Amino acid sequence: MLSTYRKKLAITSNILRVFLKYKHPVSIITKNILILRDLDILIKLAALNLIHVSISITSLDENTRRILEPRTASINKRLKTIKILSDHNIPVNVMMAPIIPAINSHEIFKLVKKVSEVGASSVAYTIIRLNGAIGEIFTDWVKIILPERANKILHQIQDCHGGQLNDSRIGKRMRGEGKIAEQVAVHFRLAKKQYFDNKCLPPLDYALYSNYKNPQLKLF
């Protein structure tokens, strides 16, 4: 019902039209193929270097996708979305997020290769972190869904965050630290070197907003 209501209001479409009208750059991150509903507007934004789209893909394995992201678009549909966007010269970044040790960390090379083949311009990742109540929820979940691997998964997550499941430190929380995090970083760097060496997202056009200063951007 809510989805139908949102579709009727066309909230996203109207927001994108405002960005286009005022030539304001915009970045979108989604795991939903419904972004293609606004393909016509995205094409116009891309022609002016005003759009980046990030598609979230955690795994190429449908069983893993169903476990981690039930009720979301299938992997094939997301890959198709990347190809359609890139075929229309809309810059696409793929986020392998989060990488969860002992669940999807072994897929780095395969995933980076595949998204490059379907036209992604760049790829990035984050390491899982389980802040606040999320840690307890995830712990209960993984012990039910993957009981034979639960302890290994939890211990490897802790290895990435100084023995804790959570991490709020700026500069550390998205990449982690320790041996497991270092292995992930090395594998990802090598995969990018092999499959994205001559690729990058084109810069967004901030010409109309060159005097605008946002200190929050320094956090990323």
Enumerate the spans where pLDDT stays under 50 for 5 or more consecutive residues. none
Shape: globular
Rounded radius of gyration (Å) = 19 Å
Instruction: Please give the alpha-carbon distance between the first and last residues.
Output: 36 Å
Question: In which order are the strands of the major sheet placed?
Answer: 1-2-3-4
CATH architecture assignment of the domain at 21-128 and 175-201: Alpha-Beta Horseshoe
- How much helicity do the residues have? 40-55%
Q: What's the CATH topology name of the domain at 21-128 and 175-201?
A: pyruvate-formate lyase- activating enzyme
Total helical elements: 9
Order of helices and strands: HHEHEHHEHEHHH
Note the main sheet. Answer: 4 strands, parallel
Structural class: alpha/beta
Characterise this structure.
The longest helix has 17 residues, at 179-195. The chain is α/β, with parallel strands linked by helices and 220 residues long. The protein has a domain at 21-128 and 175-201: pyruvate-formate lyase- activating enzyme (Alpha-Beta Horseshoe), CATH 3.80.30.30. It has helices spanning 2-9, 11-21, 39-47, 62-68, 75-87, 108-117, 133-145, 150-159, 179-195, and strands at 26-30, 51-56, 92-99, 122-127. It starts with a helix and ends in a 25-residue tail after the last helix. Helix content is 45%, strand content 11%. The chain is globular and about 50 Å long.
